Amino acid sequence: MNIEKRVKELVEEKIADKPNLFIVDIKMHSNGKLIILLDGDNGIGIDECAQVSRHVGFHLEEENVIETAYNLEVSSPGIDYPLSSPRQYAKNVGRNLGIKMKDGAKREGTLTGLTEDAITIEEKVKEKGKKAQVIESVIPMDQITETKVLISFK
């Protein structure tokens, strides 16, 4: 059985009674590190991560899913981790985003909304010799390669 698939089943089983939590990513690295990234509509706490870790770890050991030594890490994605699911975009409405496009362009703006297949941002556009204007842009999800929340220390 695929390790990542079994881990996903175990995580879903554990968070089934917590509809505000969701899986961001599950990766088994060749160096034996199994990383589970979880998030919540209102964030996720260390207690919830610990519960998932215990549940997954117990079942992986019981079922002997991973035959070699491994390191299990359950956490929320860091601020520098790209957004990947619509729920992550939804919880970041109102925040500034850095967006890499498929054509290589980079865009920045405040996330103001999203639909199933696009996001809407307000971005400053400056034309030569004119004052910068804030315009609303709709960006199709299939044109985005990476989106990260931008942190400002101003």
By CATH, the superfamily of the largest domain comes out as K homology (KH) domain
Report the C-alpha radius of gyration, rounded.
Answer: 19 Å
What does the main sheet amount to? 5 strands, antiparallel
Strand order of the largest sheet: 7-6-5-4-8
- Total DSSP helices: 3
Distance between the termini: 49 Å
Q: What is the molecular shape?
A: elongated
**What is the count of distinct domains?**
2
In terms of structural class, how would the helical and strand content be classed?
alpha+beta
The H-and-E topology, N to C, reads as HEEHEHEEEEE
How many individual β-strands? 8
Mean pLDDT value: 92
User: What would you say the CATH architecture of the largest domain is?
Assistant: 2-Layer Sandwich
What oligomeric assembly is this protein in? single chain
List low-confidence stretches. none
Function: Required for maturation of 30S ribosomal subunits.
GO biological process, one term: ribosomal small subunit assembly
Domain Ribosome maturation factor RimP C-terminal: 83-153
Main location: cytoplasm
What does this structure look like?
The protein has 154 residues and is an alpha+beta fold. It has 2 domains: 73 residues, K homology (KH) domain (GMP Synthetase, Chain A, domain 3), CATH 3.30.300.20; 64 residues, SH3 type barrels (Roll), CATH 2.30.30.100. The protein has 3 helices and 8 strands; from the N terminus they run H-E-E-H-E-H-E-E-E-E-E. The strands form 2 sheets. Strands 7-6-5-4-8 form a 5-stranded antiparallel sheet. A hairpin with a 4-residue loop joins strand 1 and strand 2. Helix 1 crosses helix 2. The chain is elongated. It starts with a helix and ends in a 5-residue tail after the last strand.
